[in-house]
Design a protein that fits this description.
about 240 residues; alpha+beta; five-stranded antiparallel beta sheet; two-stranded antiparallel sheet; about 40% helix; about 15% strand; globular
């Protein structure tokens, strides 16, 4: 498995000195890309983004892409469970498949075969990695949740690639999520992870991460029980 990280321009190889996947998402939180309150929309019940708050700059971060005045920047991780034998085998096939799935996200989410995380997926990966204690813990299973899987690139153009997590990987991801006692895991992430959110009430930030965790745990458990693979698209 090749490790990848989210940057403002997409998903790229992190070989060499790694860039933490959360960097630009932390930065996005700092410049306040979102407009909605948190942690959950009363109208839709959708988990809202940590990056949706107007989090003030805390210094040291200068590479965030600020939205144009009046603009609304958004980006998503989109997960779709599918039988392994039905996974498209090339970039164009995955583009078509995931495009159709994106159009049907509300219905597929209700059916338990899809989910999406707006803005916070890099932070979630950072949270699981930090709280798990690093790459030698639990066989590195925490890395399966967000960026894990076989990477499928466009053959010519530099676009965010897809990732395809095998049924075996999906089962391992579900087992990792099932085994988390969230309160203890949150404490395990430590003050360094929580420092960028120091101006927010910790209970509010913790609740957002817990809601993301519950959603991902339910999705991966359902996919694992069906012995499905998981296709991942990153939309910018």
């Amino acid at each position: 498995m090749v490790p990848y990280v989210v940057t403002g321009a997409g998903l790229y190889n992190s070989q060499g000195p790694p860039l933490a996947p959360a960097d630009n998402l932390h930065e996005s939180a700092h410049v306040g890309l979102g407009r909605a309150p948190f942690p959950r929309s009363a109208a839709s019940g959708q988990v809202l983004s940590v990056a949706d708050g107007r989090f003030p700059p805390s210094g040291g971060r200068t590479t965030a892409r600020r939205p144009e005045p009046g603009g609304n920047v958004s980006y998503h991780m989109h997960l779709r469970a599918v039988p392994a034998e039905e996974v498209p085998q090339d970039f164009e096939g995955l583009t078509t498949f995931m495009g159709t799935a994106w159009d049907a996200l509300a219905e597929e989410r209700a059916a338990g075969i899809a989910t999406a995380v707006e803005k916070d997926f890099g932070l979630i990966d950072d949270f699981y990695a930090t709280a798990a204690g690093g790459p030698d813990t639990a066989g590195g299973a925490y890395g399966l949740i967000v960026f894990g899987g076989e990477v499928v690139r466009h053959p010519e153009e530099e676009r965010p690639p897809f990732a395809v997590l095998s049924p075996e990987g999906t089962t391992d991801a579900a087992a990792f999520l099932d085994g988390i006692a969230f309160d203890a895991f949150w404490d395990g992430a430590g003050t360094t992870f929580r420092a960028p959110f120091a101006r927010w009430e910790e209970a509010d930030v913790k609740k957002i991460f817990e809601l993301h965790h519950r959603d991902l745990r339910a999705f991966y458990r359902g996919a694992a029980d069906r012995r499905h693979a998981v296709v991942k698209a990153f939309r910018y």
